[in-house]
Amino acid sequence: MELKQCPKCYTDICVNGKWFHHDHLTTNAYMLNGSEPINVELAKVPTTENELINMLNSQF
After folding, report:
1. In what order do the strands lie in the sheet with 18-23?
2. Which residues contact 50 (CB under 8 A, 6 or more apart)?
3. How many CB atoms neighbour CB 35 within 10 A?
4. How far apart are CA 30 and CA 33, in angstroms?
5. 0.85 cut: is pTM over it?
6. I need a labelling partner for 54 at 20 to 30 A (CA). Which of 2, 7, 15, 26 fits?
């Protein structure tokens, strides 16, 4: 699925039992980890949900 190209949009997604938040049009994501999120720097801005999942899988 294509990610909306809008800075106001975001995706929360579960990858391997871990929840991540990604603000569209950025290379930043973070793992929701209680009160202390873990930041993730993506290699590039993902354009699809599958691309985002693959990038997160390669990091965790």
Report:
1. 10-15, 18-23, 28-31, 38-41
2. 1
3. 4
4. 9
5. yes
6. 7
Give burial (CB, 10 Å; 0-12/13-18/19+) of 22.
buried
What long-range pairs does 12-19 form, CB within 8 A, spacing at least 24? 13/49, 13/52, 13/53, 13/56, 15/53, 15/56, 15/57, 15/60, 16/57, 16/60, 18/60
> Measured in whole angstroms, how far is the alpha carbon of residue 31 from the centre of its chain?
8
Judge residue 16's burial from the number of C-beta atoms within 10 Å of its C-beta, 0-12 exposed, 13-18 middle, 19 or more buried: exposed
Question: Which of 27, 7, 11, 28 is CA-nearest to residue 19?
Answer: 11
